[in-house]
Amino acid sequence: MPSTPEEPLPSRRQLRAQQAAAEQSAAEQGATERTGAEQSGAGQSGAEQSGAEPAAASGGMASVQPPLLPRQAAESAGAGDDAAAFLTARDVGGSGRGRTNRRSLLADEPPREKRSYKGAWGCLIVFVVLSALVAGVALFLQGPISQIIAATQGPADFTAEEAATGEDVIVMIHDGNGGSEIAATLVEEGVVKSFDAFYSILLQTAPEPVFQPGAYQLKTKMVASTALDALLDEGTRLNQTVIVPEGTAAVHVLASISEGTDIPLADLQAAAANVAQFGLPAEATTLEGFLFPATYTFSPEATAAVALQTMVNRQYEALDAAGVAVADRWSTIVFASLIQREAGLRDDYYKVSRVFQNRLDPAQWDSGLLQSDATVAYGTGKTHLVTTTDAERADAGNPYNTYAHPGMVVGPISNPGDLAIDAALHPVDGSWLFFVTINLDSGETAFSTTVKEHDAAVIVWQNWMREHPEYG
User: What is each CA distance from 383 to 39, 283, 298, 415, in whole angstroms?
Assistant: First the structure.
């Protein structure tokens, strides 16, 4: 009977040995039979006599069959019980038993290395960690790399395509303005893209350019080199044109008129001293507050008095358009001039107006002190600053010192525009009593109701000032 699958199967080496022994035995038996046949002459073969199959012959010699694989050995005619047992285990016993028995069959072969997923997970973890590390390094170096690239590419400048979309703009160059001041003005007006783009070209230009004061017809989004050429071109200089920005003090307005026209500054100063000729309110002792900020073009024949009267009339038009009665012109201009100097962003104008209104209310602010640095600075002649010192704030001899004198400031401290006038007339609702501009570049202002809140905001402003000493 065939062996059952549970019995141990012969190994491949054992099968090969058995096959070789069988072949050798067959060869020996064949040789014996041929010898017997030759001797007896009988026709019966040794194979028949022994009951085995005759060996195939070729050329009078027994052919040697190649070694059989296990399956072939089992399938060969006349295979023994061992081969049948192997066939049963391999092909009859089912897939699970077949796999098990095959491992038994190949026991003499080197065991295959088991596939492990630990290595794959390890590689994945290493890949993730390295990716995160590379991303972190790239993020860390992003700033320095961008700075290096910017340095190699030069300062930011408008392209020719961007320049084609520029719009007309009038830029005022004042007497005594240096290259850095002109560069800053061009950036502020949107003429050039960056300070360095213009200033670097200016430094490389020889001989050193000389700029004439006055108004220039330029474009926004100009290539820096083109902007420089335009400022040096007499054809772009607008004769008899004057630009007065909002909040400009009267002393600077007179200088701008002289720079943009052929009117001597001395003539303008003399005309301005005769306040009565301009029809100002009785309280006015100077033209401060009544020279409306705008762009003006005068005829070559215009005199100092004509130029100044033109600006005063334009301010009256603005007051009338805002609905201000003639009797209220003075108080409105005084308050609007204060807001114009203290406010930065558009929405802040109405908040600043509310703060000062609240401080004038004894129920909310019993001291009645506006405590405006802009008023103190104006009284000291520092019309371009809004910061003051402890000594300046303590100086009661300064009539514009609202730290020392309660109530509204004694007179205008700048020339306000339409927005400041509207804010003076329509303060927004709120309970704020303090404000401080914490970023003089952006105009960002912090509004507070309590002293504690305000003190915290002041610290922010002081830190900003330390980082920007040029504003000190």
Answer: 146, 21, 26, 12
